[in-house]
Amino acid sequence: MKKLNLKKILSLSAAMALTLSLAACSAAPSGGDAASPSPSQNGGAQGQDGGAGYKIAVVQQLDHASMDEIREAVEAELDAKAAELGVSVTYQDFSGQNDPTLLSQIGAQVVADGYDAIIPIGTLAAQQMVVAAEKTKTPVVYAAVSDPETGGLTGIDYVTGTSDALNTPFILDMMLALNPDVKTVGLLYSNSQDNSVVPIADAKEYLDSKNISYVEKTGNTNDEVIAAVNSMLDQVDAVFTPTDNVVMAAELAIAPILAGAGVPHYTGADSFVRNGAFATSGVNYGDLGAYTADMTLDILQTGAVPEYHVMDGGIITVNTETAAALGADYSVFSTLAGQVVEVQTTEE
Known about the structure:
Layout: H1 18-23, E1 53-60, H2 65-85, E2 88-95, H3 100-112, E3 117-121, H4 123-132, E4 140-142, E5 159-163, H5 168-178, E6 184-189, H6 197-209, E7 213-218, H7 222-232, E8 238-241, H8 245-260, E9 265-267, H9 270-274, E10 279-282, H10 285-302, E11 309-310, E12 315-319, H11 320-326, E13 339-343
Parallel strand pairs: 1-2, 1-3, 4-5, 5-11, 6-7, 6-8, 8-9, 9-10, 12-13
Antiparallel strand pairs: 10-12
Helix pairs in contact: 2-10, 3-4, 7-8, 8-11
């Protein structure tokens, strides 16, 4: 599929021009060329065989490795399922740059343009799309919302999706398996992220039960996260971060700082690890994206909106370069999980 990627051109400075820019753009149908499909009465596009067709908005909260991986998996699965089902599926990418105002504008325009479904990636994006779709009841099928209940995304008849809910105790079990003598753990997160609330509370409960002290540090920008890391280096033996988008965006900058100080960074997603964090146990975001796409097309074809789905986790991912810098023998992780994946740092 050939498609326009608005996330490279949308910015805060262009937000007021969003309506005009979106009206000028369209995506090619799956398996087709660059020509825009003709809209059907329900806002979709007719398949080449005269069957049903759908127009889907993929709204990414911000640009970083985890969300990029999910978006790519969503769109690859939409292409594959369109061919399998014999329907025409068009999709358009949007990025809100982690800005509620811009995400709200995107939501309003997506609804006005008659998209058949919206796939928001991330909690803030999901919340804004749910508000935008309230009157039209356009299906909102979110991806990678760690805690749908805390995010206010449950009990709404046109809303569902996939959750990458974190098994925080398991990750901290990994930490103690590698170093049973941990005395103090740094809890690094953004207090603007709903999806960090429950995992941080879980981490505190776990550490209290083990009589391990902790230091909380927060940041809401890259500079604040870097400052938070530097302020805890001489206090902690390890650092834990949940699936926090703000910290993820800063991982490439903070990973060398932590590794250089001999402090392993345990995180909530493999994207952190691919950007230099030490280790995680979580879901496969490729599988999550594909599952979300399948849910979306099933809803469009059947009209039935199921409960949200919590993806299976249990895959341990380790950055071998960071492990070498830390002098960490992570072979013990193989006794905790059935699969240990080794990766190296990529600047994506």
